[in-house]
Amino acid sequence: MTAMREIRASYDAATIVVYQAYPTAVADAALAAGTFVAPFSFTRMTWIKPSLLWLMHRSNWGRKSGQERILAVRITRDGWHRALSEAVPTSDPALAQARVHVQWDPERSLRGAALNHYSIQVGIGRDLIRQYATEWVVGLTDLTPTVRKIAGLVQTGRAAEAQRLLPAERPFPVDPAVARRINAT
Known about the structure:
Blueprint: E1 8-11, E2 15-22, H1 24-33, E3 46-48, H2 52-59, E4 69-76, H3 77-86, E5 87-89, E6 100-108, E7 114-124, H4 126-136, E8 137-142, H5 144-155, H6 159-165, E9 170-171, H7 176-181
Parallel strand pairs: 5-6
Antiparallel strand pairs: 1-2, 1-9, 2-4, 3-7, 4-8, 6-7
């Protein structure tokens, strides 16, 4: 049984994969550099999501303006843990002073339907964005062609084929004190 608020992600012993959607100029520059560089904005919060399906819902499978390119961003688990340990839920009155925001939204099915459990998104604030780009990011992959293929398969009624192309996401272990801090249950 899936917990109501549980971080599910693709990860290994040293890294975790999060997803972001960008305009082509940002994605191309980042892929060429192997990390985020201009025109990526270092002056505004950036939201990272370990659930590909939630990002697909948010970006309409890469069809929203400014969200046409889908990147898998492999970051260090140390960076991820640091973000979570500093995170404040968006419902918390202390949010205004927080360097990292956490929001829980309904997880999505392959067809975009809201599920009965929640997926996390983490907002990295201006004070940490450079550290995110220079120390936490260890690799970028352009998932745009795969995302387009998955969307096409779903649209043509081939959901089982589409499902096989999704990354394996499993429960991610979180320190109990951090879990309480971010309202994970």
